Each structure stands twice: as structure tokens, then as C-alpha cells.
């Protein structure tokens, strides 16, 4: 299909209908697109394996593999150095202290130090005179050997002292760096996901849940990477290094130590599973608390006006107590696991001492005092990483449910993507056709068999009672949703075949609640077209009568508005959003009750701004107030999603009861 639609009224059917794959995409209803896989019937495997979750989370770490590898190398060096320090007890005992003591009299220690620090005195091992020259010779040999050994040990110790701070700095700094970058990436991924989720999703899910997923769950999932790289990996490394040393001291005793594994794994498995399950509930509750807070903030005026502060406070407190109780369920499991591990550890340490002593006493397996002492020391040093590891494990299980909730968000289908042969439009040249359009949000149909032809440049008014489906119609034209059946065509091209970018570039909508972002008035107008020049922004502002109230503001167009900053009145805000629409210079303009919440004076201003916008565009004016629509080329009366009549004001006044009723209402209201 050639991408130039203008001047071609041929119905373009290929896109969306010939391709069965595309058809299924298009037939996705918002109901199917939205909803965070709430029930098992929509999510065949609601509980994903922990391994799968973390491997997926680790993909975020892939760009920083180099940094992480360096950090882990540092970590390896760090635990190596630490273990080596403990290991030194073995040569110290076996090669220095025991031979020194064995070869003679008690007071060895005082004379060790001068020799170490380069004193000229020889190490005095014995005070008693040697019985024979040979014995003297032998003692001197032992003395020299002991001295050499001691010097070696001291040198190794010195190197360790120098290395440890360097590698420790390296590992901590690099890990934090990589984690920080990963967090930036994860946040960006979440934000882009939230932005591309279809509108249906945002209607079906509470904001509290989405916010909680994007803040609490993302935070926790990210922290689990921290746990993985620091606690878990480093502990495993430390334990491995320690294990190598243990084996080198006595492999038999090391094998004996393995009896501790089955109970450790059992505790980890049982409590890990429980923690994960309870943590999921806690995270869901957290969403509930966030939602309560959002509602309180959104409804603050109503709450105050109805003196409902105490009720709200209590309901918020109740929600938090719920959260507290679910949190305590996690804590209970976590603390129990910790206590059991601790008991196991203590029992193990005592048992090892007893067994070791027994072995040394009987001289089995060639175990010496030095061996046992070094073994126990290395074991002791491995205690901290073991503890970190079991804490890391429970932390990971706790975070797994957050990672799961985070990925559920990531996996929610985004807006239907553009088909590969999507058409770029450059405006409306012939017209817009709605044919047999039907749509529903859930079970109840909102639009049924809606058909309408609009010529380019026409102004069409759509009137009807509240809930008739007017806003839904505008949303369909903006492609926030795709129709259940039927179609909307611009110049004969189905909306679903038009690239979303090019469609939205030529449509501007002004809604009932004018939304301003935090920022200056100028920024808010420029939102209509990001590359507009200052002069263009000011021109649009003039047309929309924005300059009249901006002139008296101290900072003019640089006044901060939105959540923080000055409060503009409804009419002023509306004029800013109209300036935004003017700047966009769209081919299709939609006013959805743009003036209905304004007082008469603001309405007149806004109406003038709207009139200035009209020339040469295809305009949809949605209203239940009818003063704005009298001059429309065509007025469509919508009732329960169906067109009941189309005509001009005069025709409808003559023939349509509902229209007369609406006009009557209007006159009474004014
Ligand atoms: N996001 C939504 N989810 C479910 N139902 C909706 C949603 N938006 C609107 N509706 C329902 O669709 C019908 C038409 O709504 P709407 O198009 O907003 O009417 P109007 O703009 O004419 O007042 C109403 O019954 C309304 O309750
Ligand atoms: Mg509406």
C-alpha cells in the first residue's frame, strides 16, 4: 500500500482486514488489554518460578556486566585476603609457636618481637645452656627456621593489610555504581511501559496499585539485585574461598561439615516459599494504602466540607493496620527462619569443636592442633557470610513477589502497535466516516451501530444526555480504544491502518477538565507542539485570550502553574489548553464539553477562542449545553450510543423531541 492517502477515496481494506494476524490484534477489546492479570483464568501461570523471575531481572544488569565482573573480582580478592589472614594461624602455630615452644623453655614470646623488628638480638628460644654442641647447633637451626617463617608470615600479613582496603573500596563502589545505573534503566522501562499501556488499563486498575507497583515493587525488586550482588554472591564467594581453605586444612573434616547442609536447605526452602507467598499479599495491601492516600488527596475538599476528617483518618489507619498485619506475617516467617538457622549454626559450631578435639586427641586423620585451630578460625570467618547468605535468601524470597508484580506490569500488553504498512496522513482532505461502529467497555454496549459521515472542514455537534457515549466516541476517534466492530475511516483509510503518531499529530482535543502540567504557562502551551518558536507560542496565546490574564501576573508567561505554583481559574486554565490546541494547528479538533464547567463570562472568552480555531478544520463539538452548537453544520443527537437523528438546529427543533428537551433544559439552566 502506498503511504499517500490524499486524493484517494478508494476504501483501503487491506490493512486490518486481509491480514488475519492484524485482525486478531484489532479485535482486542480494552477489557482484554487492561486488567493486571487479576485472575488465574487470564494468567495461566500466576506464580512464576523464582529462578525465572530473577534471571529476567538480571537482564537489566547485562549492560553493566563488565563493572559487575570487576566488582566481583574485588569481592573475591577481598574474601580471599580475609580468609588468608585467618589461615595464617596455621603456619603461625605449626611453624612458629609450637616448634619454638617445643624446642625449649617457656619465655618465647618476649623475645619474638625484637627479632621481628630487626633487632640485632637473635631470637632466644632457650635460656638454659645447650647440653652439647650438636644440640646447640640443632637449636640454632630451629631458631633460624622459626625466624624465617615468622618473617614470611609478617610479610604476607602486611600485603593483606595493604590490599584489603583497596579491594573493599573497589567492590563497594562498583556495585553501587552498577546498581544505580540499573535502577535508572528499570525506572525508565517502567515509565515507558506506563505511558504505552492502553487507556483501558488505566481505567481498570486503581492508581494506587499502579503507583505501588512502580514505586514499592520496583524499589524492592531492584534492592533484590543489590542483595544478589552483595549478600548472596559475595557470601557464596566467601564461602567457596573458605571452603577451599577448609579442604586444604582437612578435607575429611570438611566433608563432616556437610551434614549441616540438609537442614539448612530444608529451612531455606520451607520458609522461603512462605515468605514469598506472604510478601505478595503485603505488596497488594501496600497498593491499597497508596490508593487510600490518593483518594484522600483527591477528595480533600469534599472531606473537609463534610467534616469527614476523622472517618478518613480512621479508615486510613485501618488500611495501614491491615498492611501491618500482612507485613508481620512475612516478619514471622523471616524471624523464625533466622532463629532456626542460628540454632543450627550454634549447635554445629559446638559439635565441630568437640569432634575436632576428639580427632586431635586421638591423632586421627593427621589433624594437628594448628589444623583444628585454623579450621575453626576459617569456619568462624565463614559464619558471617553464611548468615548473610541466609538473610539474603529470605530477602530474595521477599523480593520475588515484588519482581513478579513488576513484571506483570511490564507484561501487560501495550497499545496495539502500528501495522507494518501503516499509513501516514497529512490532514483530512475528504472526510471522516464512522460506519456501524459498536463498542463496549464491558458487557453493556456503549455505542451501537453508530454511522456518520463528516465532510472535511465541517463542524459537527454531538449532543445527548450524560452517559450517552459522546466522550467514548471522541476516544475512539483518538484511537484510545479500537472499536468492537465497525470502523472509523479518515479519507477512506481505516483508523487502525493509520500510524498512531501521524493520526494524533493532526488531532487536538480540549476536554472538560483542563489539565496543566507543573511548569510555566509557556511550557504548557508549548506542549501542543514541542518545536514551536516563542513567537508562535505567544501568537497562540493571544488567539486564545491567554495574554489578557497573563499580563497581570508578575512572572507573565514564566509563571509556574500546575500542582505547584499559582492557581488559575477554570476558565483561565481552559484558555491555556485551547492555546495548546491552537499551537498544534490540527486538522481535526475535538471539544468535549470544553465550556460546560465554566461560568458565563469565562465561557464567552473560551467560545471566542474556540471560534478563532475553527476555520478550515474538521471540528467535533460535544456538548450538553447547546448554545455552543447552534451554528454547527450538522447536529447529531445521540441516545444510548445510537444516532437518533441528524440535522441542523432548525431541523431538529422542528422534529426531534430529545433535542427540544435538551435545548429546553439549556434555556432553563441559563
Ligand atoms: N472507562 C470506562 N469503563 C467502563 N465504562 C465506562 C468507561 N467510560 C465510560 N463508561 C460508560 O460508558 C457510557 C458512556 O460514557 P461516556 O462516553 O463518558 O458518556 P458521555 O460522554 O456521553 O457522558 C456510560 O454509561 C459510562 O458509564
Ligand atoms: Mg463525556
Question: Short description, anyone?
Answer:
With 670 residues, the protein is α/β, with parallel strands linked by helices. The protein contains 24 helices and twelve strands. β1 and β2 form a beta hairpin.
Radius of gyration: 38 Å
Overall geometric form: elongated
Question: How much helix is in the residues?
Answer: 55-70%
CATH class of the domain at 51-127 and 134-411: Mainly Alpha
Portion in strands: 5-15%
Low-confidence segments, given as residue ranges, are: 1-14, 16-46, 105-109
Q: What is bound: which ligands?
A: adenosine-5'-diphosphate, magnesium ion
- Count every helix, treating DSSP H or I runs of 4 or more residues as helices: 24
Number of strands: 12
Can you say what the CATH homologous superfamily of the domain at 51-127 and 134-411 is? Answer: ABC transporter type 1, transmembrane domain
Distance between the termini: 53 Å
Mean pLDDT reading: 83
Structure description:
It contains 24 helices and twelve strands. It is of the alpha/beta class and 670 residues long. Among the domains are: 51-127 and 134-411, ABC transporter transmembrane region fold (Up-down Bundle); 518-585, no CATH class. Strands 6-9-10-3-11-12 form a six-stranded mixed sheet, with helices on both faces. A four-stranded antiparallel sheet has the order 2-1-4-5, covered by helices on one side. The protein has a two-stranded antiparallel sheet with strand order 7-8. Strand 1 and strand 2 (445-455) form a beta hairpin. Helix 5 (65-87) runs antiparallel to helix 15 (369-411). Adenosine-5'-diphosphate is lined by residues 203, 441-442, 446, 464, 466-472.
